[in-house]
Every structure is written in structure tokens, then in C-alpha cells.
């Protein structure tokens, strides 16, 4: 039936056991196959030539914007507006906020037009997209990027430093919170990018559920142990009411948060040693695993499911970014409370609290001086008080400018009406860096650490095995 | 006789239940898409929404470039299918009608391309596309898959069934190569071409992995890639997500309903003839 | 017999050129890259011999990936074939509504894997998903489908079967319709029971179709990608990471071109050997008929 017909010539050959044509046929077909292969190889030679040329082009000139730059540079600079592309990760209401900022910029002048686009998959998805576009020499003119990839943006993708523009124009940065500016600097203090939508981790609580469990609401828990006790008291695992949720879908930000609030650190580049599996890291795993396996208050679900549950009133607490503020406020029909992170071990002064900053910087990507300068114009607009107000009000992220939240600032009315929105600023003084792994391996390291957590959550490994195994792998990857 | 009718009922019962089970993912998608935002998970008899709303659809059409994706899909799937049919007819004619040096290994090669998963060369193919500067372009999506082993194979099977006498008669009448192809083969192969065309159209419409890799701008995406991107993973909005999925499936279902007999026919006639 | 005409070559030229550039060449190219370390962003390329393959062999994730893929294929394929055959026989038993059943059974094949995956991702939701809701009605606590290793792979297998078995039903129906009616009439006269007819006549006669179905289902199961990418991203802890997804992840997420091309080469060669093997078996099998 089916394969019998593959070869209509063959049946004849099978009947005539002796087949004088076949051997010759074979040889000839061989020759043709060789010919096809030769053609393919010839084509391959051509294309690989192209590849190498392109590669050397990229190496020589940095990279250009490929198809997104329509031969504008060839003609004498005309009155045609420059169109810039701008990538971000925000969808839904947060994308509308982006739209508002971009629209505001486009309306403010007629020389430059910015077109924004959302890339799915959060910072990881955006990083993947940027790398692909860099290889295809189609980098956007502007992009945001999660703070954990700050070094890679500069070293791996060649983000254009804004420092020369600041110096040239004598841009006044005094209004920015200094520790937010730091987030966009390199180790030498050069301002590579501007802080854009910054966040800190917060504990969002369902006050109604807390009250039902007879727990008094406080602004800041004394310790993570206390948080665990609350979860234990308020959750009803059998009825589908979870105690707490964490978001470990895309990155290890919350792990770092806990490690640092237990007094530890991720790693040290000076001594080239990994520290996330030291005692504080192990305590984080114990903390999670106790709640998950023994007390049943922390269900093993994705962060987006946890957020969904929290909004639906089936989780008492969730540890999440400031960036969820607007979403939670808009969708939760219970009394929403926001707590600051506890400090280390109940003893306020034993270790300074460190709160790793989350969120993103705004980067200018390499193209040509004219486009880069145009991009800088947008950066200035997007970090202006007006744009900052949109970021705070419509997205929930933090303002990078002090003046916004001052008594007479643009946001004073909003802050008065939404006292929760001020909570993040209360831990601002403790703001630290989101850990950047050296080199190009950030995505892989994040991924293998998340795998390790999952293995412990699934009881495939103990918390200690999981962390030590991950540390060993990271050590190998980094060659430490 | 009575017992026969009884087994008949049993068979129908089993088939009916299975048919419903098969449809559930689709029904569920439609049902969620019609739900009220506030009551997504309040179901009546598990699957029916308690309150119906078109809000999800409104949101899809307003907040996503859905129509853009739709036309992109029409364009990409249309070009691919037309190209695959054209090249398929030419190649199938060569394999069915002529015996030439290398016809055996070449046909075997075509069969192999049909079976070896294209995903295996996903990354190197991407680098080739990139060398041509075709990342993020429609030619990058279309050109590499213009040759379809399936189309060649099925059309050849069909051409083989056409009596040689017709062919020879046409030649005696003075037709040559391409004329024979047109007057004899193409004309009698219309049903097969429609079958292959519809099947390839649906396949091309649904393609996910290659489009995902090549098309990077959301404005350029096709429907399957677009609707997945539209799902905001940070906080999944089920109602609009399912509305987008439902809308993306409708064109294919319409084609399938209208051309149903061709879908089955193609397999009866050729696939395992 | 062999034509001297140039026409067939002309006819095949576009197709073969495309195959050369977009099928044969990428494979060779991939082979070439797999022996080097290539930093895409800087363009630096150094020859590293078999280091990538060694790294691949040492990667516990890759080992897990192969295990998962085999597990997936070995469960999806047989179930899909058996269900396909079973329902084809059942549908052919009916007199009315044949067309309706064929129509419904084929629907999953035409629905895009993207839309289907989105729907299944909510069906599998541990709290709100229909599956667990139904299970809780009969007093069973459903699994945390996509967040536990075993159930996550099972979830993908179920989706894979749902997607593929309708196609097999149609192929088997086509095969059954081709069977010679006279043999059955003779068998009826000989008084063979329906069961004997099935095992002695129908199944052996259908064996070429079965082989074809076997080949197609096996190969398409090996290609599983979209469902993984949309539903689980290979998680939890790589429990659903499979070959194609592994290549995709190494290539486009970690940008490790060496490892990605080495894995792609392994996948390509494995499927090619599998294909050739199966084609040979099938060809041999058919001759006996």
C-alpha cells in the first residue's frame, strides 16, 4: 500500500531478478547526488562567507540597526522625523502607561517619533529577544532591562552610556534618589543608563483574612519567622486557602531578597566565591520547605498563579514587587495591606537590612550618533517628573525623582489618596543591587538556580543538596 | 437482529462520549472566553459560564493587534500554500511522469525531508536566515518552507493514478512537457490539489515554532504566535486569552467545515493508497 | 526507459535548490558549528573539537531530556495508535453518523497547537481547572498538574494524544475502506466470529497502514515543542524538558551555539537513523503481503 508506491520502477526490477539497468542507474544517481551536494556546498560557501562578513561587520562597527534604519543616513538629513523603536515587557494596564509616556513624548516635538513594543516573557524574554536582535543586527534604539542584567547590557550588548550626554548638557540629576541613580551606573560610577521603573519587594497582605485569623496588622513584621507563624495561623490548606506565595517564575530576585534579609549574600566577585549556599541561603530553603512541606501554607505553584490566588482572596499574603501595586489595588476586592520586609532575625541593628532593588533601567542601544542622540531625548522625557508620575500612578513602580513625592510634588495628591504607594519609599534607604552574575551566563545561572529550588520543592533533593549542587554548577560555569 | 441493534447503540454511546471529550478543550476555551471578568471560575455544570459577557473579545480586538495578526496569517499561510502547491505540482509531475537519472535517490530524499522533523535544524536554519538578513521578515518565514515533501509526495501519488494512455494521447496530439502537465495532469488532479492545498493551508496557518523564532515584532506576528504572546504571563487574564485563542481558531474551523470532504479524501486517496 | 529530456531536472530545480539551501546546508552548517565555540555577539569563533559533544554528554539536563523525550514518545505513540485503530474500527461499525464522527475526531488536528495549549493550560489549573474540578466531584484530590514532575509530563502526554489520535483514526479508516470486501464475505461464509475476523483478517491486512501510522506518530512525537514551550517551559526542574525544547533553550535563551548545534546534530542524526530504519522495515514488511 503506502510504501509500495514509493518506487514505481522497483516492482519491475524485483520481477526480473537480473537487472542490467540498475547498477548503472545507481552510479548515475550517485553522480547526481554528488552534484546536488556540490551545489549545496557551493551555496553553503557563499552563505557562510556572508555570515563571516556580517560577523566581522558587527565586530568592526558595533552593530547597526539593520532593517529598522531605513537608509536615512545616506540622504542628507531631511525634515523626516527619526523613528525610534523602544522595547519593554509591560502588558495590559502597564502597557497603556507606556503608551501614554511615548505618546506624550511624540506630541511634545515633531523631530523624533518613538514606537514602543511589548516583548512577552518578562525580563528573561526581553533579554532573549535582545540577544537575537543583536545577532540579527536589528537592535532597537531603546529598551528597558531588568536590573539583574545591567552589566550584560553594557558588556554583552554594547548599551550606549548616557554619561557623555549628561556631561555635555550638564543635566541636573540632583532630583533623583542617589541610590536609584547608582542602579544605572557601572563599577566606576559612570552613568550607563537611567533608572526607569524601580521596585522593591513588599509583602502584600489580605487584611480581612488576617483579621479573621485574629492577627493584628503591622507595618513591618519583626522577622520572617513571624510571617511564617501568621501564614500557619491564617491559612487553611485543606480549604484551599494558602498562607503565602512567592514569585520564582523568571528570576531569583526573591531568593536574593530573603538571603540578604537573613544576612547573607549571593556571591562575591572579589574573592570569586559563591555564597548563596552558605548558612543564610540554607535557612531560606528551610523557611520555604517548612512552609511548603510541613505546614502546607506555601503551595508549590507558579508566581502568576499565586498572584491570581491572592487577588481571588485565596492566599493570605504574597511577596511581590512594588510593580504589582496598581494591579492588586484595582483587582482585589478586600482590604489590601502592604508590609515592609522584616529585618534580620528580629534584631534590628545586628545586620543592616538590605532590600535588593527590582525593576528596570532605560537603555540606549548602539546605532549611529544621530539616532543615539535622539534616543537620549526620549530618555530625558521618560525620566522626567511627568513621565515618572505616570509610572507611579498607572504602573505602581517607584518614582526615581524625589520631587514627585514631596509635599507639593506632582504625586502629592496620589500619595495622600494611596498611602500604600508610599510604603516602598520607607525602605528606600536600604536599597541594594540586584545581583549581576559576571559575564554572559546570567540567564543560565538563574535558570539552574530556579531548577534547584524546584527540585527541593518537589522533594527530589533536600534544600541543602539543591543549593550546594547549584553552587557547584555555577562555580563550574564561571570557572571560579 | 435485536442484539445487533443493541451493540450498535453501545458503539454510538462510546463514540458520542468520546466525541464530547474531544471537544471539551475547545468548548472550555469558548466558555471561558464568554465569561464575565469577575466570575471566570464560577461555572454552571462545570463548563458553562454563570454570566456571559463579550468583554474579553472587546479587549482582544482593542488591546491587541489582532486583525493585523489575522492578515499576517492570511498572507503567510496563503503564500506558503500557493508556493508549496506550485513547486509540489512541478516536482510531482517530474517524479510521476519521468524516469531520469537520479530519480530514485531524489525521491527518497524528498521522503526523508517529509519525515525528519524540521525542528532538528531549527537553530542552523535560523543562522542561514540571519545570514540573508531575513530575521523578522516574512520571506524568512516563507521561503525556507516553500518546498513541501508532503505536497510532492501526495500529488505524485495522484499523478501516478492517471492513465498513461491519456498522457500518450495528448502527446500524439502534439502536446509537450508543460502542455501535458496542464492539459492532462493538472485538470484531472483538481480534487487532489484542493485537498493538499487545504491541508497545507491549515498546517501553515497553525505553524508555531518557526514563526516564533523568525518573527520578532509583535506587529509582524501571525495568530498562533501572537495569541501566546498576548497572554501576559505575569498575571494571566484568562478571559481575553481564551477569547484570542477562540478567534484564532475560527478561520481554520470554517475552512475545515467547508472543505471537510477534501480533508478526509486526501488521506483516503493518497496518503496510504 | 530513462528519459534524456532535461525537463524533469528543470521541474525539480526550484524544489531541490530550496532543499539544498534550507535543509541540507543548515545540517552541514550545524555540524560545522558544533565543533566550535562561537560567540554570536562578538563574532569570535574558535575550533574546539568535540568539546561541545563532551559537554553535552556530561550534562545531566540533556540526559534527563533524552529520558523525558523517550518517555513521552513511548507513551504518546502507542496510546495514540491503539486509540486510533480502536475508534476507526468502531466508527466503521456504525452505519449512520460516520461522517459526523470523522469530522469531530479530526478537529484537534486542525486546531492550532498554540490555541489548544492555552486552553489546556487552564484545564490543568490545579484549583480552577476543569479536570481537577471533575476529580473533586468524585472525591479525588487532583494532582498539581503542571507543577509536579510526573503529572506535568503526563499532562503533555495527554495533550499529545488528544492532538494526534484523530489523525490516526482517519488514516485507519482510509485503510479499512481499502480492504477487499470479498475476503470478508468469504470469511462470513466460513463462519468466522467477529473477533477472529478482527485478529486474523483485519489487523494483519491493516499492518502496512499501522506501520505508516507508527512511523508518522513516532516522528511527530519526537518533535514535541510548542506544548512544552507554552505550558511548562520544560519545568518543573526539567521534568518536561524535551529534545527540541532543549535545543531551542540553548540556542535562544542561553545563546550557547556550540551546545545547541551539538544537541541539534544528535537530534537530527537520531531521527534520520530512526526514519531510515523505519522506512526499511516498512518496505520489507510490505513485500510479504
Structure overview:
The complex is a heterotrimer of chains A (480), B (273) and C (289). With 480 residues, chain A is α/β, with parallel strands linked by helices. Chain A has helices spanning 10-15, 21-61, 93-108, 122-135, 150-155, 163-169, 178-181, 207-212, 224-234, 253-261, 279-294, 303-311, 325-331, 369-382, 385-395, 402-405, 412-417, 423-426, 442-457, 463-478; strands at 82-88, 112-118, 142-146, 194-199, 201-206, 267-268, 273-274, 317-321, 336-339, 355-356, 358-364, 431-432. Chain A folds into two domains: 82-198 and 358-425, Periplasmic binding protein-like II (D-Maltodextrin-Binding Protein, domain 2, 3-Layer(aba) Sandwich); 201-356 and 437-478, Periplasmic binding protein-like II (D-Maltodextrin-Binding Protein, domain 2, 3-Layer(aba) Sandwich), CATH 3.40.190.10. In chain A, the strands form four sheets. A five-stranded mixed beta sheet of chain A has the order 2-1-3-11-4. In chain A, strands 8-5-9 form a three-stranded antiparallel beta sheet. Chain B folds into two domains: 2-53, no CATH class; 58-271, MetI-like (MetI-like fold), CATH 1.10.3720.10. Chain B has 14 helices and two strands, in the order H-E-E-H-H-H-H-H-H-H-H-H-H-H-H-H. The two termini of chain B are 35 Å apart. By secondary structure, chain C is mainly α. Chain C has a domain at 61-114 and 142-287: MetI-like (MetI-like fold, Orthogonal Bundle), CATH 1.10.3720.10. In chain C, strands 1-2 form a two-stranded antiparallel ribbon. Chains in contact: A-B, A-C, B-C. Chain B: Belongs to the binding-protein-dependent transport system permease family. Chain B: One of its GO terms (biological process) is transmembrane transport. Chain B: Residues 70-259 form the ABC transmembrane type-1 domain.
Largest beta sheet of chain A: what is the strand line-up?
2-1-3-11-4
How would you state the average pLDDT of chain C, rounded? Answer: 89
Largest sheet of chain A: 5 strands, mixed
Under the CATH scheme, which class of the domain at 61-114 and 142-287 in chain C?
A: Mainly Alpha
Q: What is the domain total for the residues of chain A?
A: 2
Amino- and carboxy-terminal Cα gap of chain C: 28 Å
At the fold tier of CATH, the topology name of the largest domain in chain A is D-Maltodextrin-Binding Protein, domain 2
Query: What's the architecture of the largest domain in chain A, going by CATH?
Result: 3-Layer(aba) Sandwich
Amino acid at each position: 500500500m503506502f510504501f509500495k508506491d514509493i518506487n514505481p520502477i522497483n516492482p519491475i526490477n524485483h520481477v526480473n531478478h537480473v537487472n542490467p539497468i540498475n547498477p548503472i542507474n545507481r552510479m548515475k544517481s550517485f553522480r547526481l547526488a554528488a552534484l546536488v551536494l556540490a551545489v549545496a556546498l557551493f551555496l553553503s560557501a557563499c552563505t557562510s562567507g556572508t555570515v563571516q562578513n556580517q560577523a566581522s561587520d558587527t565586530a568592526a562597527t558595533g552593530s547597526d540597526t539593520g532593517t529598522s534604519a531605513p537608509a536615512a543616513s545616506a540622504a542628507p538629513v531631511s525634515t523626516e522625523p527619526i523613528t525610534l523603536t523602544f522595547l519593554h515587557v509591560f502588558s495590559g494596564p502597564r502597557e497603556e502607561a507606556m503608551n501614554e509616556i511615548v505618546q506624550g513624548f511624540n506630541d511634545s516635538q515633531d523631530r523624533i517619533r518613538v514606537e514602543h513594543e511589548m516583548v512577552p516573557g518578562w525580563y528573561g524574554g526581553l533579554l532573549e529577544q535582545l540577544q537575537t536582535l543583536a545577532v540579527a543586527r536589528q537592535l532597537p534604539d531603546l529598551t528597558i532591562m531588568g536590573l539583574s542584567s545591567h552589566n550584560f547590557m553594557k558588556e554583552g550588548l554594547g548599551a550606549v552610556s548616557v554619561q557623555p550626554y549628561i556631561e555635555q548638557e550638564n543635566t541636573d540629576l540632583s532630583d533623583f534618589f542617589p541610590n536609584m541613580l547608582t542602579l544605572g551606573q557601572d563599577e566606576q560610577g559612570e552613568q550607563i543608563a537611567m533608572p526607569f521603573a524601580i521596585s522593591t519587594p513588599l509583602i502584600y497582605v489580605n487584611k480581612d483574612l488576617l483579621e479573621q485569623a485574629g492577627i493584628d496588622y503591622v507595618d513591618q513584621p519583626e522577622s520572617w519567622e513571624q510571617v511564617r507563624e501568621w501564614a500557619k495561623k491564617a491559612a487553611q490548606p485543606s480549604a484551599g486557602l494558602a498562607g503565602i506565595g512567592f514569585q520564582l517564575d523568571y528570576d531569583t530576585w526573591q531568593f536574593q531578597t530573603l538571603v540578604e534579609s537573613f544576612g547573607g549574600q549571593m556571591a562575591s566577585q572579589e574573592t570569586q566565591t559563591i555564597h548563596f549556599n552558605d548558612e543564610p541561603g540554607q535557612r531560606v530553603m528551610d523557611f520555604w520547605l517548612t512552609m511548603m512541606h510541613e505546614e502546607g501554607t506555601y503551595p508549590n505553584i507558579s508566581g502568576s498563579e499565586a498572584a491570581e490566588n491572592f487577588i481571588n482572596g485565596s492566599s493570605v499574603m504574597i511577596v511581590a514587587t512594588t510593580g504589582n501595586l496598581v494591579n492588586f489595588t484595582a483587582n482585589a476586592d478586600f482590604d489590601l495591606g502592604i508590609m515592609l520586609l522584616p529585618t534580620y532575625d528580629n534584631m534590628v541593628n545586628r545586620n543592616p537590612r538590605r532590600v535588593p532593588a527590582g525593576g528596570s533601567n532605560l537603555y540606549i542601544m548602539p546605532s549611529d550618533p544621530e539616532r543615539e542622540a535622539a534616543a537620549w531625548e526620549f530618555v530625558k522625557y521618560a525620566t522626567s517628573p511627568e513621565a515618572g508620575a505616570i509610572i507611579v500612578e498607572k504602573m505602581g513602580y517607584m518614582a526615581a525623582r524625589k520631587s514627585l513625592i514631596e509635599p507639593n510634588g506632582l504625586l502629592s495628591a496620589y500619595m495622600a489618596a494611596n498611602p500604600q504607594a508610599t510604603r516602598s519609599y520607607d525602605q528606600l534607604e536600604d536599597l541594594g543591587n540586584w545581583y549581576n552574575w559576571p559575564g554572559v551566563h546570567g540567564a543560565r545561572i538563574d535558570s539552574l538556580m530556579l531548577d534547584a529550588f524546584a527540585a527541593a520543592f518537589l522533594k527530589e533533593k533536600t534544600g541543602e543538596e539543591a543549593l550546594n549542587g547549584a553552587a557547584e554548577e555555577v562555580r563550574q560555569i564561571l570557572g571560579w | 437482529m435485536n442484539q445487533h441493534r443493541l451493540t450498535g447503540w453501545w458503539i454510538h454511546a462510546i463514540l458520542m462520549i468520546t466525541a464530547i471529550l474531544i471537544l471539551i478543550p475547545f468548548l472550555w476555551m469558548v466558555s471561558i472566553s464568554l465569561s464575565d471578568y469577575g466570575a471566570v471560575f464560577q461555572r454552571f455544570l462545570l463548563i458553562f459560564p454563570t454570566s456571559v459577557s463579550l468583554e474579553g473579545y472587546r479587549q482582544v480586538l482593542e488591546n491587541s493587534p489582532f486583525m493585523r495578526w489575522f492578515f499576517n496569517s492570511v498572507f503567510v499561510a496563503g503564500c506558503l500554500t500557493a508556493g508549496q502547491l506550485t513547486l509540489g505540482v512541478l516536482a510531482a509531475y517530474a517524479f510521476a511522469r519521468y524516469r531520469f537519472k537520479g530519480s530514485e535517490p531524489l525521491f527518497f530524499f524528498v521522503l526523508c525531508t517529509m519525515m525528519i522533523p524540521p525542528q532538528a535544524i531549527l537553530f542552523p536554519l535560523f543562522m542561514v536566515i540571519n545570514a540573508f538578513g531575513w530575521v523578522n521578515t516574512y520571506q524568512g518565514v516563507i521561503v525556507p518552507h516553500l518546498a513541501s515533501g508532503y505536497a510532492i509526495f501526495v500529488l505524485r501519488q495522484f499523478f501516478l493514478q492517471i492513465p498513461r494512455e491519456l498522457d500518450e494521447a495528448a502527446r500524439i496530439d502534439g502536446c509537450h512537457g508543460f502542455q501535458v502537465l496542464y492539459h492532462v495532469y493538472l485538470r484531472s488532479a483538481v480534487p487532489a490539489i484542493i485537498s493538499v492545498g487545504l491541508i497545507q493551508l491549515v498546517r501553515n496557518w497553525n505553524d508555531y515554532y518557526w514563526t516564533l523564532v523568525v518573527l520578532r515584532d509583535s506587529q509582524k506576528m501571525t495568530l498562533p504566535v501572537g495569541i501566546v504572546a498576548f497572554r501576559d504571563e505575569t498575571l494571566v487574564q484568562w478571559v481575553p486569552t481564551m477569547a484570542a485563542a477562540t478567534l484564532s481558531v475560527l478561520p481554520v474551523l470554517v475552512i475545515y467545515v467547508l472543505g471537510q470532504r477534501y480533508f478526509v479524501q486526501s488521506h483516503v486517496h493518497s496518503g496510504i493508497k | 526507459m530513462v528519459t534524456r529530456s532535461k525537463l524533469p531536472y528543470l521541474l525539480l530545480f526550484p524544489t531541490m535548490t530550496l532543499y539544498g539551501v534550507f535543509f541540507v546546508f543548515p545540517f552541514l552548517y550545524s555540524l560545522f558549528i558544533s565543533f566550535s565555540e562561537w560567540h554570536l555577539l562578538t563574532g569570535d569563533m574558535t575550533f574546539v573539537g568535540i568539546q561541545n559533544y563532551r559537554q553535552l554528554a556530561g550534562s545531566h539536563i540533556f540526559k534527563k531530556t533524552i529520558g523525558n523525550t523517550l518517555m513521552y514518545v513511548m507513551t504518546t505513540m502507542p496510546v495514540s495508535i491503539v486509540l486510533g485503530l480502536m475508534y476507526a474500527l468502531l466508527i466503521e461499525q456504525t452505519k449512520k453518523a460516520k461522517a459526523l464522527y470523522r469530522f469531530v475526531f479530526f478537529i484537534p488536528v486542525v486546531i492550532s497547537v498554540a490555541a489548544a495549549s492555552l486552553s489546556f493550560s487552564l484545564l490543568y489549573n490545579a484549583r480552577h481547572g476543569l479536570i481537577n474540578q471533575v476529580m473533586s466531584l468524585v472525591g479525588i484530590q487532583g494532582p498539581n498538574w503542571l507543577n509536579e514532575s510526573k503529572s506535568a509530563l503526563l499532562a503533555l502526554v495527554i495533550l499529545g494524544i488528544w492532538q494526534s489520535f484523530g489523525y490516526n483514526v482517519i488514516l485507519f479508516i482510509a485503510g479499512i475502506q481499502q480492504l477487499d470486501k470479498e475476503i470478508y464475505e468469504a470469511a462470513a461464509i466460513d463462519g468466522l466470529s467477529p473477533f477472529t475476523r478482527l485478529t486474523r483478517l483485519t489487523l494483519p491486512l491493516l499492518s502496512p497502514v499501522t506501520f505508516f501510522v507508527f512511523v508518522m506518530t513516532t516522528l511527530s512525537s519526537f518533535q514535541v515543542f510548542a506544548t512544552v514551550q507554552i505550558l511548562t517551559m520544560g519545568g518543573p526542574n526539567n521534568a518536561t524538558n524535551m529534545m527540541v525544547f532543549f535545543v531551542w533553550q540553548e540556542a535562544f535563551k542561553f545563546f550557547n551555539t556550540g551546545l545547541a548545534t551539538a544537541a541539534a546534530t544528535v537530534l537530527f542524526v537520531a531521527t534520520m537513523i530512526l526514519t531510515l530504519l523505519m522506512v526499511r522495515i516498512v518496505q520489507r514488511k510490505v513485500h510479504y503481503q
